[in-house]
Design goal:
Helices cover 10% and strands 32% of the residues. By secondary structure, it is mainly β. It has a domain at 38-53 and 102-268. The strands form two sheets. Strands 1, 2, 3, 5, 6, 8, 10, 12, 13, 15, 17, 19 and 20 form a 13-stranded mixed beta sheet that branches. The chain has a seven-stranded parallel beta sheet with strand order 4-7-9-11-14-16-18, with no helix packed on it. Mean pLDDT is 82; it is low at 14-38, 52-57 and 262-270.
Length: 270
């Protein structure tokens, strides 16, 4: 029997509309060489996204078990229920059919992968992360319809555990409080994906860095930065739009560092 969370998400999926245009990345000014510049990968992202179609949702597919080290359900088939490689039209959930949250990984190595589905729904995993990026330095994962429903995107380092900076591209909808997790110092996630809608909070956590470069006017949820995390942006639009009414702590930081990577070089530290 499907969980109440999954059933309610099915209704939400029918209401989500994808933007007609991709959002061009913005220059981020001078940055450390260890950080992947969005313009360096954007041409690849646009080319791969152009190959993906977005037909109506045909069916729901669930994880059977967690992806083991060195395996990936982004391109693999055996961990999905029903079995099969991801295909356009289906909606993929990071839970099993009972609603228990599980963990999927991206492929290892220096790769650019596009998740070929109608949607990928990241659900709450009480035992860990929902989607772990495991590529080598400079790898890119593209999800054209990523729905964050209490789940997380994390940088797990490469196959050897070495710190990396990797890129998440596509479009994101936030339907329940979710997380970006750098997991450790020296690790970073560069989010060029546009957060197109959502009122639930996004929490950025741990001692690495989260770079948010999309134009996220449709997102009006809280942007929270937890202890030790560095959040970097190019302009105020990366943080989302303004809610219709005043919301206390709309941008919240706790013993963390928030920086602007714009040409002005401004930074602020609470």
């Amino acid at each position: 029997m499907l969980s109440t969370e999954t059933n309610s998400l099915n209704l939400i999926l029918m209401k989500i509309k994808m933007p007609a245009q991709t959002v061009a990345s913005r220059s981020s000014g001078s940055r450390s060489n260890s950080i992947v510049k969005p313009q360096g990968v954007f041409a690849i992202i646009l080319a791969l996204m152009a190959l993906l179609t977005l037909p109506a949702h045909a069916g729901n597919v669930f994880l059977r078990v967690n992806d083991a080290a060195g395996t990936s359900s982004v391109t693999g088939s055996t961990n999905w229920n029903p079995v099969g490689v991801p295909s356009p039209g289906n909606t993929y959930f990071t839970t099993n059919t009972s609603g228990v949250g599980l963990q999927m990984r991206t492929p290892t190595g220096l790769v650019t992968n596009a998740f070929a589905s109608g949607a990928l729904v990241l659900c709450t995993n009480v035992n860990g992360e929902s989607l772990i990026i495991k590529g080598d330095q400079g790898s890119v994962i593209i999800v054209t319809n990523l729905i964050m429903a209490g789940g997380s995107v994390a940088n797990g380092g490469n196959a050897a555990g070495t710190a990396t900076t990797n890129t998440l591209a596509g479009f994101i909808s936030v339907v329940s409080g979710s997380r970006f997790n750098s997991t450790a110092a020296g690790r970073a996630i560069v989010i060029v994906a546009a957060i197109t809608n959502g009122v639930s909070p996004i929490t950025n956590q741990n001692a690495g860095a989260i770079w948010i470069f999309g134009t996220n006017n449709g997102f009006i949820g809280k942007m929270v930065v937890n202890t030790g995390c560095t959040l970097r942006i190019t302009n105020q639009f990366n943080l989302g739009g303004n809610p219709a009414t005043f919301t206390a702590a709309q941008r919240a930081a706790s013993n963390s560092e928030s920086r602007s990577a714009s040409a002005t070089g401004r930074s602020s530290k609470p």
